[in-house]
Write a structure and sequence with these properties.
The complex is a heterodimer of chains A (about 750) and B (about 325). Helices cover about 60% and strands about 5% of the residues of chain A. With about 750 residues, chain A is mostly helical. With about 325 residues, chain B is an alpha/beta fold. Chain B has two domains: about 140 residues, 3-Layer(aba) Sandwich (Glutaredoxin), CATH 3.40.30.10; about 110 residues. In chain B, the strands form two sheets. Chain B has a four-stranded mixed beta sheet with strand order 1-3-2-4, sandwiched between helices. The chains are: A mainly alpha (about 750), B alpha/beta (about 325). Chain A: One of its GO terms (biological process) is protein N-linked glycosylation via asparagine. Chain A: It comes from Lottia gigantea.
C-alpha cells in the first residue's frame, strides 16, 4: 500500500475492463444460440450498404444510386443515409486488413455494437466523473454495460445506428461538460468534432443540438453566465454547425428547419448578453438600465420577426412529422398512419420502464434530487437531460434509449452516495481515510457555496461513531442484494427478450430445440432461382431482407420515404385478384412474397398486419379501398366463413391461404385450420388465375408466387356460334390486348 | 354562340322532363311539399327533430329525392346516456358544417329522433341501443353500410362526415368552432404566475429554494415513468370491474395495458422508494443523537426494500413468467 493513487487507478482500470467484458459477453446470447448473423430488418440494409462501401470504395458509396429498391423509382442511397455506421465498420475492416488480420465484413458488423457498448461505458464513466465523483462513475459504467434499455439496441447482430450513436451521444456530452468546466476552446472544438460523428451516425443528434442550447439558456436565466460558457458554446456552435452540414443527408437542414433554430437563437442571445455585459462595465447604472431595456426589446422583436418571416417565406421548414408528434401526441395517429403503424412509436407503459431499467428507475430520481440540492453549472445539464429524456421516453418507446444513459448516471450517483456514507470505515486511525477525505474535500470545492452544501462540510468531521457498524453493514448488504437482483434481472431480460435474431426462429418442444429457418431458405431460393432483375412485391417490412439476402429488386422497403408507392402495394394486396393483376402489370412485378404464419402459429405474419395495408391504401385511394369492407357487419376482422367477402377474396388472403384448405395439420382440427388465429379458414378451394405458386418454405412461413405473363391471346370460351363469326371478332380483341400491354 | 346553344338545348331537355313527368303530378306534389317543409325547418335549425309520425312520413315513405341522415338517440337526462351527449355535439358540428357550406342543397338532411319522442321508430328499426347513425338513401332500401359502425370508427365529426361522403358522395368539410379553452387556461396560468411573482417581488427567495425545484422536477419524472403519457394518449379506464363477481381490478392483467389507478399506485411506490433512499442518505447528516440517526437510517432502508419489492411483485403479476421476486412474492 505504498502508493494509494496507483492502487486506485489500477482498480479503476480493472473495474472498467470488467464492465466492458461483462457488457460484451451479455450481448452474445444470439450469437451463441444461433450463429453470427445480422438481425431483423434495418440492420440488413446497413449491412448491405457497408458491404457495398467496402467493395466499391467510399466515393462510390456516396454516389450510390440503388436501382434495386423502390422499383421503378430507385433510391439515392448516398444522400439519404447516415454514413457514420458504415464508415466506422469500414475503417475497422481496413485497419484489421492492413494488420494482416483477414476478417469478413459481416463479422465486424455483427460485433460492432457489443464492442461499442464498452466504449459507451467508458464515456459514461468520464461523464459521471465530471458530474459527481469517480466512484459514481464506476457505478454508472457498470450499470450502462448491462442495462436492458441499452442492450435492446446493441446485441450482437443488431447492426444499427443506435449501437454507435449512444456512445457518440454520451461522449459529446462528456466533452461539453468538460468545455463548460474549463472554458477552453480546445474542449469546445472537441465537442463539435464528437458532435460531427454523432450527426453522421444517427438522426437523434437533434437531441444534442437542442439540449445543449437549452442548458446554456437555463444557465443564463439562473444568472450563471460566465466567460467559460460563452467560449464553450460559441466555439461548439460555430464549428458544429459547419461540420454537421457536411453530411449529405443533413445538408442545409441545420439552417433551414425549425428543429435547429433553438441553437441559433441561443447563440444570438448569448452574444447579445455578453455584449451587454461588456457595455455595462463602462456606463452608469441608469444608462445601462435604459440600454438594457431598449436592446432586449429590439433584439427579441427582430429575432421573432425574422423567424416568422422566414418560416412564412418557406426558408425555414416547419417541424417534421416525427418531431411534431412528440409534442402533439395525437397528431401522428390522425395524419400519418405510417408512423402510427410502427410499434416503436407507441407511448410507453410503466411496465416497459420497469422492464428496461428495473431498480434504476426507482433510484434515479434520488440522483436528480441531489443534483438539484448541490447544484452547479454542469449538474443543471444533468437535471435538464433527465427531465426531457423522461418526457420523450414517455411519448415514444424507442426513445427509452436516450433516457437510459442518464438514468444510469443518476442512479449511480444515488448508489454511490449511499455507499460512500455506509461503507466508510469510521475507526479513526488509518491513513486510508485521510486520502478519501482529501478527495471529498476536492469535491466539496466544486459545489457552490450556497445553501446546504456548507452545512455538510460543517458537521461532517464532528462525532465519529454516528451509526453503528451493524446498521451500516445491514444497509450495505441490502443494497448489494438489490444490485445483484438488478444484475440477474438484466441477464434474464437480455436472454429472453432481446436476443432473438427474428429471421431465425426457434421453438422449444419435448424433442429439444427446433430451428425454423424459413426466411433464409426462401430468400436464398429467390437469390438462386429467379432472374437477376426479377422484381419482388412484398409488404415494406421485408424489403431490406429481400434486397440483403435475396439480392433482388424490391418495390417498397423499410425506408418508408414514399407513402403513395407503399399505398399502391397495399392496394394491390387488398384488391381482388384481377384488379391486383392490373396493378402488378403496371409495376412490372414478377414475384409476390407473403409471410404466412398459420401453419406454425407465428403471429407477426401478413394477415395480422393486413389492416395496416388496407388503412394505408385507403389513405391514398379512398375510392377503391374501404376499411369497412374488410370487417363483418358486427365490426370484426375474421378470416373464417363468417368473414367479409371482400377479405376472403382479396389477393393477400388468396396468396396466404392458397392450398391451405387441403392441409390437415392435426387429427383434432379440420383441414385448413389456421393456428395463429385459431379458426378454420372461410375460403378453401380456389385456384389462382393470374398467379402461380413458385415456392413455399418448409413451414409455409414464406410463400412466393410468380405473376404469370399475359396470355398469348384471349381464351375463346366454347365456340357455340359458327366459326366464321368468331373469326371476325378475334383480331379486334387481340389488338386490344396488344395495346394494353404496351 | 356555342354556350348559348348549349344552354338552349339544356333548357329543352329540362322542358322534356317536366312534360314527361307531369303524369306523376300527385306524387310530385307530395314530394315538393316534403322537400319544402324539410327545407323550411332546416333554415331554422341545422338538425331537424322528428317525431314518430314525421319520421314515417318524411323518411320512410317512398317518393323521395333526398337522402336523410338520422341520429337515433336518447338525450333526456333520465336516460343517463353520456355518450349520446358527446355524439350529439359532434353530430351538430357536422350538420352545421353542411348547413353553412357552399354546396348546401336540399339533397341531404340531418335529422334526429329522440327515444322519448318516438319510441316506435326504435321498435320499427329493431334498435335497442343509442346512439345510432343511419342513412336513408334517396332511392332503394338501406344497405349494410348505411348504419354507421361507431364501435369501430367512433363518432367524431370527421368520421361522421367521412361516412356521409361514403354513403351519399356529398363532401362535407367539417368546420369546428375553434376551442379557446386551452389557450385561455394557459393565459390564466401565466397571468397567475406573473401576478404571484409581482406580489412577491420584494421577496423572491422562494425562486432560489432548491427543495421547490427538486420536488417539481421529481414530479415530472414520476409522472412520466409511471406511464401518465400512455394514459393521456390511450385513455384507459380508471379501473376494471369484473362483471361476474363484481370485484374491482386495479391492476391490468397484461403487460401491454394499464389502468389509471394502477399508474397512481406505481407512482406512489416509486415516490416511496425515492423518499426512503433520501431518508437513508440524510440520516447521516441529521442533527441529534446517534439513536435517532440509526432509527432514521433503518426506516429509510425499510422504505426502499419494502416498497421496491412491492413494485416488483406488481410487475410480476403483470408480466407472466417473470421468475424473480424480493422479500415477498
Amino acid at each position: 500500500m505504498g502508493n494509494p493513487g496507483g492502487w486506485k487507478s489500477l482498480l479503476t482500470f480493472f473495474i472498467l475492463a470488467l464492465a466492458w467484458l461483462a457488457g460484451f459477453s451479455s450481448r452474445l446470447f444470439a450469437v451463441i444460440r444461433f450463429e453470427s448473423i445480422i438481425h431483423e430488418f434495418d440492420p440488413w440494409f446497413n449491412y448491405r450498404a457497408t458491404h457495398h462501401m467496402v467493395t466499391h470504395g467510399f466515393y462510390n458509396f456516396l454516389n450510390w444510386f440503388d436501382d434495386r429498391a423502390w422499383y421503378p423509382l430507385g433510391r439515392i442511397v448516398g444522400g439519404t443515409v447516415y454514413p457514420g455506421l458504415m464508415v466506422t465498420s469500414g475503417t475497422i475492416h481496413a485497419i484489421l486488413n492492413t494488420l494482416n488480420i483477414p476478417i469478413h465484413i459481416r463479422d465486424i458488423c455483427v460485433f460492432l455494437a457489443p464492442v461499442f457498448s464498452g466504449l459507451t461505458s467508458l464515456a459514461v464513466y468520464f461523464f459521471t466523473k465530471e458530474i459527481w465523483s469517480a466512484g459514481a462513475g464506476l457505478f454508472a459504467a457498470c450499470f450502462i454495460a448491462i442495462v436492458p434499455g441499452y442492450i435492446s439496441r446493441s446485441v450482437a447482430g443488431s447492426y444499427d445506428n443506435e449501437g454507435i450513436a449512444i456512445f457518440a451521444l454520451m461522449f459529446t456530452y462528456f466533452l461539453w461538460i468538460k468545455a463548460v468546466k474549463t472554458g477552453q476552446i480546445f474542449w469546445g472544438i472537441c465537442t463539435a468534432l464528437s458532435y460531427f460523428y454523432m450527426v453522421s451516425a444517427w438522426g437523434g443528434y437533434v437531441f444534442i443540438i437542442n439540449l445543449i442550447p437549452l442548458h446554456v439558456f437555463v444557465l443564463l436565466l439562473m444568472g450563471r453566465y460566465s466567460k467559460r460558457i460563452f467560449t464553450a458554446y460559441t466555439s461548439f456552435f460555430i464549428v458544429g454547425l459547419i461540420l454537421s452540414m457536411q453530411i449529405p443527408f443533413v445538408g442545409f437542414q441545420p439552417i433551414r428547419t425549425s428543429e435547429h433554430m433553438a441553437a441559433a437563437g441561443v447563440f444570438a442571445l448569448l452574444n447579445a448578453y455578453s455584449a451587454l455585459k461588456y457595455v455595462q462595465s463602462f456606463v452608469t447604472k441608469a444608462e445601462f438600465r435604459y440600454i438594457f431595456i431598449m436592446s432586449v426589446g429590439i433584439a427579441a422583436s427582430v429575432v421573432f420577426l425574422t423567424v416568422v418571416g422566414l418560416t412564412w417565406a418557406g426558408y425555414i421548414a416547419p417541424w417534421s412529422g416525427r418531431f411534431y408528434s412528440l409534442w402533439d401526441t395525437g397528431y401522428a395517429k390522425i395524419h400519418i398512419p405510417i408512423i402510427a403503424s410502427v410499434s416503436e412509436h407507441q407511448p410507453t407503459t410503466w411496465v416497459s420502464f420497469f422492464f428496461d431499467l428495473h431498480i434504476l428507475i426507482c433510484a434515479f430520481p434520488v440522483g436528480v434530487w441531489y443534483c438539484i440540492k448541490y447544484v452547479n453549472d454542469e449538474r443543471v445539464f444533468v437535471v435538464l437531460y433527465a427531465i426531457f429524456a423522461s418526457y420523450f421516453a414517455g411519448v415514444m418507446v424507442r426513445l427509452m434509449l436516450t433516457l437510459t444513459p442518464i438514468v444510469c448516471v443518476l442512479a449511480a450517483i444515488a448508489f454511490s452516495k449511499t455507499m460512500e456514507i455506509y461503507l466508510k470505515d469510521d475507526s479513526p486511525k488509518t491513513n486510508h481515510r485521510t486520502s478519501e477525505k482529501d478527495q471529498e474535500n476536492k469535491n466539496e470545492r466544486l459545489y457552490d457555496k450556497v445553501g446546504k452544501a456548507k452545512k455538510i462540510s460543517d458537521n461532517k468531521p464532528k462525532d465519529d461513531d454516528t451509526l453503528g457498524i451493524n446498521i451500516k453493514s445491514v444497509i450495505v448488504i441490502a443494497m448489494l442484494m438489490m444490485l445483484m437482483l438488478f444484475a440477474v434481472h438484466c441477464t434474464w431480460v437480455t436472454s429472453s427478450a432481446y436476443s432473438s435474431p427474428s429471421i431465425v426462429l426457434a421453438t422449444y418442444g419435448h424433442g429439444g430445440r427446433n430451428i425454423l429457418d424459413d426466411f433464409r431458405e426462401a430468400y436464398f431460393w429467390l437469390r438462386h432461382n429467379t432472374h437477376d432483375k426479377a422484381r419482388i412485391m412484398s409488404w415494406w417490412d421485408y424489403g431490406y431482407q429481400i434486397a440483403g439476402m435475396g439480392n433482388k429488386t424490391t418495390l417498397v422497403d423499410n425506408n418508408t420515404w414514399n407513402n403513395s408507392h407503399i399505398a399502391l402495394v397495399g392496394k394491390a394486396m387488398s384488391s381482388n385478384e384481377s384488379a391486383a393483376y392490373a396493378i402488378m402489370r403496371e409495376l412490372d412485378v414478377n414475384y409476390v412474397l407473403v409471410i404466412f404464419g398459420g401453419v406454425i402459429g407465428y403471429s407477426g405474419d401478413d394477415i395480422n398486419k393486413f389492416l395496416w395495408m388496407v388503412r394505408i391504401a385507403e389513405g391514398e385511394h379512398p375510392k377503391d379501398i374501404r376499411e369497412s369492407d374488410y370487417f363483418t357487419p358486427q365490426g370484426e376482422f375474421r378470416v373464417d366463413a363468417a368473414g367479409s367477402q371482400t377479405l376472403l377474396n382479396c389477393l393477400m388472403y388468396k396468396l396466404s391461404y392458397y392450398r391451405f384448405g387441403q392441409l390437415q395439420l392435426d387429427a383434432r382440427t379440420p383441414p385448413g385450420f389456421d393456428r395463429t388465429r385459431g379458426v378454420e379458414i372461410g375460403n378453401k378451394n380456389y385456384e389462382l388465375t393470374h398467379l402461380e405458386e413458385a415456392y413455399t418454405s418448409e413451414h409455409w412461413l414464406v410463400r412466393i408466387f410468380r405473376v404469370k405473363d399475359l396470355t398469348n391471346r384471349q381464351e375463346i370460351l366454347k365456340p357455340k356460334k359458327p366459326i366464321k363469326k368468331s373469326y371476325k371478332k378475334k383480331p379486334k380483341k387481340v389488338s386490344c390486348e396488344y395495346r394494353k400491354c404496351h | 354562340m356555342a354556350t348559348a346553344s348549349q344552354l338552349f338545348s339544356a333548357f329543352l331537355l329540362l322542358l322534356c322532363f317536366t312534360v314527361s313527368e307531369s303524369g306523376y303530378k300527385k306524387k310530385e306534389d307530395s314530394l315538393g311539399d316534403k322537400v319544402s317543409q324539410l327545407t323550411e325547418w332546416n333554415n331554422k335549425k341545422s338538425v331537424i327533430r322528428l317525431t314518430g309520425d314525421k319520421f314515417r312520413e318524411l323518411v320512410k315513405t317512398p317518393p323521395k329525392n333526398y337522402s336523410v341522415i338520422v341520429m337515433l338517440t336518447a338525450l333526456q337526462a333520465k336516460r343517463q346516456c353520456s355518450v349520446c351527449k358527446q355524439a350529439n355535439e359532434e353530430y351538430i358540428i357536422v350538420a352545421n358544417s353542411w348547413r353553412y357550406s357552399q354546396q348546401f342543397s336540399n339533397k341531404l338532411f340531418f335529422t334526429m329522433v329522440d327515444y322519448d319522442e318516438g319510441p316506435e321508430v326504435f321498435q320499427s328499426l329493431k334498435i335497442n341501443t343509442a346512439p345510432v347513425f343511419m342513412h336513408f338513401p334517396a332511392k332503394g332500401k338501406a344497405k349494410k353500410g348505411d348504419t354507421m359502425d361507431i364501435h369501430r370508427v367512433g363518432f367524431s365529426a370527421e368520421n361522421v362526415a367521412k361516412w356521409v361522403q361514403e354513403r351519399t358522395d356529398i363532401q362535407i368539410r367539417v368546420f369546428r368552432p375553434p376551442n379557446y379553452s386551452g389557450t385561455l387556461a394557459l393565459a390564466l396560468l401565466f397571468s397567475l404566475i406573473g401576478g404571484l411573482l409581482y406580489l412577491k417581488r420584494n421577496n423572491l427567495e422562494f425562486l432560489y429554494n432548491k427543495t421547490c425545484w427538486g420536488i417539481g422536477a421529481l414530479a415530472v419524472i414520476f409522472a412520466m415513468t409511471s406511464g401518465q403519457m400512455w394514459n393521456h394518449i390511450r385513455g384507459p379506464p380508471l379501473m376494471h370491474r369484473n362483471p361476474q363477481s363484481g370485484q374491482m381490478h386495479y391492476i391490468h392483467g397484461s403487460s401491454q395495458g394499464q389502468f389509471i389507478m394502477e399508474t397512481y399506485i406505481v407512482m406512489l411506490l416509486n415516490t416511496a422508494v425515492v423518499v426512503g433512499f433520501i431518508i437513508m442518505n440524510e440520516a447521516h447528516n441529521m442533527k441529534g443523537d446517534s439513536r435517532k440517526k440509526r432509527i432514521l437510517a433503518l426506516v429509510g432502508l425499510g422504505c426502499v426494500a419494502i416498497f421496491f419489492s412491492l413494485l416488483l411483485s406488481v410487475f410480476r403479476s403483470k408480466y407472466q413468467g417473470y421468475p424473480y421476486s424480493f422479500l415477498f412474492k
